[in-house]
Design brief:
By secondary structure, the protein is α+β, with helices and mostly antiparallel strands. The chain has two domains: 104 residues, RimP-like superfamily, N-terminal (GMP Synthetase, Chain A, domain 3), CATH 3.30.300.70; 56 residues, SH3 type barrels, CATH 2.30.30.100. Helix content is 36%, strand content 30%. It is built from two helices and eight strands, in the order H-E-E-H-E-E-E-E-E-E. The strands form two sheets. It has a five-stranded antiparallel sheet, with no helix packed on it. Strands 1-2-3 form a three-stranded mixed sheet, with helices on one face.
Length: 175
């Protein structure tokens, strides 16, 4: 084979590789959207009927890291997180997504803001710091969760009722 024929053959092969890469790259947004949808549905099904619930799902900008925050009616333990992590790993492997995805499943953390009404009952009796949309901040012991809000007992012994729609953010105060 002459050098010119070899070069032409290499050019065609490189052209075919680039065509395949172009097709694969054009499918990545669809594959990623499908993967994200499957992950969200999988988490919902995996936690359905349990005392655990998801409070956050976040993908890194390059879609190579998945962070899932799970809480429970009585907290969440490492076994529940590990089980969900393994289950998500299997789902991602079966999906056909190219490349590795780092999966992190854990609790939101003791100092993370509460994002769901379902998180409040487990904190009855604890000190809360609630930031309101009007700019004020209230601190008090969480007495109870009732319908559309909570009742707090301030340090001076006064009970205050607040609706959830008044909250900008609420956190458990760790002392």
């Amino acid at each position: 084979m002459s050098p010119k024929t070899q070069a032409t053959g290499k050019s065609r092969a490189i052209g075919r590789i680039l065509d395949v890469e172009e097709v694969v790259m054009s499918q990545i947004p669809e594959l990623l959207a499908d993967l994200k949808s499957q992950v969200a549905g999988h988490i919902e099904l995996a936690l359905k009927g349990t005392a655990h619930f998801v409070v956050g799902i976040q993908w890194s900008p390059d879609s190579r890291r998945l962070s899932v925050k799970v809480d429970g009616d009585k907290g969440v333990n490492i076994d529940a997180c590990a089980t969900l992590n393994r289950s998500l790993g299997k789902l991602i492997d079966e999906h056909g997504w190219q490349g590795s995805v780092v999966i992190e499943v854990g609790s939101p953390g003791a100092e993370a803001p509460l994002v769901m009404v379902r998180q409040y009952p487990q904190h009855v009796g604890r000190l809360m710091k609630i930031f309101l949309f009007d700019g004020s901040v209230l601190m008090g012991s969480l007495l109870r969760v009732e319908g559309s809000g909570v009742a707090l007992m301030s340090q001076d012994g006064l009970e205050t009722k607040l609706n959830f729609n008044e909250f900008k953010e609420a956190k458990v105060v760790i002392v």
